[in-house]
Amino acid sequence: MPEHMEHTESTESTDGTATSVPAVRVEGLWKRFGDQIAVAGIDLELPAGKFIGLVGPNGAGKTTTLSMVTGLLRPDMGRIEVGGHDVWRDPVEVKSRIGVLPEGLRLFERLSGRELLAYTGRLRGLPGAEVDKRATQLLDVLDLAGAQHKLVVDYSTGMRKKIGLAAALLHNPEVLFLDEPFEGVDPVSAQTIREVLVRYTRSGATVVFSSHVMELVESLCDWVAVMAAGRIRAQGTLAEVRGEAPSLQSAFLALVGAGGRETSGSLDWLGGTR
Ligand SMILES: Nc1ncnc2c1ncn2[C@@H]1O[C@H](COP(=O)(O)OP(=O)(O)OP(=O)(O)O)[C@@H](O)[C@H]1O
After folding, report:
1. Where is the ABC transporter domain (predicted)?
2. What is the spatial distance between Cα 204 and Cα 209, in angstroms, rounded to a whole number?
3. pTM for this structure?
């Protein structure tokens, strides 16, 4: 693993007390695709140094939000800051501070895993020897050392996620954004990814990841934002969002209004005698 710098930044407020700059601040963010409003004017303030889960049902707007926050998709309206820097006015500054594992990750398929990391490191402006050192450690920790000379096109889904994660971590970003990092990943690889991410947040870095898997979010995250139909339904610490509910899953179902869909009258042809 790369050695981490202390990532959390703080500024002096007018009364002289130190206030930490949020990892991400979003104000009035909108995105529409034709008639479909994917993100309907959301506000978010994600604290630095936390493990943050963005949860919501299919089509809630999570990927669209993460794409706008990471500078991959231009918002129709709204303002986004990462570490106090405006994503759309100061994109180079922001991109040097973030790592991204996007959904449907596209990688350079004809490079080996090792070559992909070497290329990514040089694009990030790191010296060759440093890239080599970091790549060797990441490949080792993520259990990809044996496959480092294999072409990425021949990697499995889980291996692709892991090499994508390695590429996103190589420059030691302040904030790491992961869209469904555990989807299609076996339990052993998932555990490896978890360990790497937990270690990374302990250095003061921030992880923001989207997921549908509430148990995972509940066990990993200290801060949660719940999204449904393009809006933020709740945001806060895990305890605040869970409230009186017995689990994050039941709080989530109540928040997104998915508590009691009646299926007994329909699908009556499914199962039984044929
Ligand atoms: N490029 C696009 N063109 C048209 N509609 C889009 C596009 N991208 C997203 N949408 C629509 O915007 C809405 C939000 O989609 P988004 O992918 O952000 O949701 P999500 O929360 O990430 O869902 P999932 O959990 O299923 O990945 C959906 O209704 C989707 O159909």
Report:
1. 24-254
2. 16
3. 0.88
